[in-house]
Amino acid sequence: MAGGWTQDGAVQQQIDASLDDALKRVRRHIPAGESLRDCERCEAEIPEGRRLALPGVRLCVACQSEIDRQEILSSPYNRRGNKDSQLR
Ligand SMILES: [Zn+2]
Q: pLDDT means per 10 residues in the chain (88 residues)?
């Protein structure tokens, strides 16, 4: 019985490790530090709700969505990722 228990533990460790990697990847995209009062791109005021919801936010909603769209269009990784998720 002890052998079976050890195997379960190893599988759990593997799950923990990949979860950890996924969290690290996600956290890299979250800006850190003080939120800006004004958008650093167009200098429009960033609403307080947005600043509280996204700590370290530096762009207004309009600029952020514009940049997000440009990143999706210009990144081959995102395009490949979308295709993969469509296949699933
Ligand atoms: Zn802006």
A: 65 83 68 85 95 91 93 73 58
Extents of the domains making up the chain: 2-87
| 41: phi then psi, degrees, rounded to nearest 5 | -100, -50
Ligand 1 centroid–CA 72 distance in Å is 18
Distance 44 CA to ligand 1 centre (A): 5
CA distance 67 to 64: 5
Distance 65 CA to ligand 1 centre (A): 10
Residue 72 and residue 88: Cα distance in Å, rounded?
20
CA distance 58 to 46: 8
DSSP 88: -
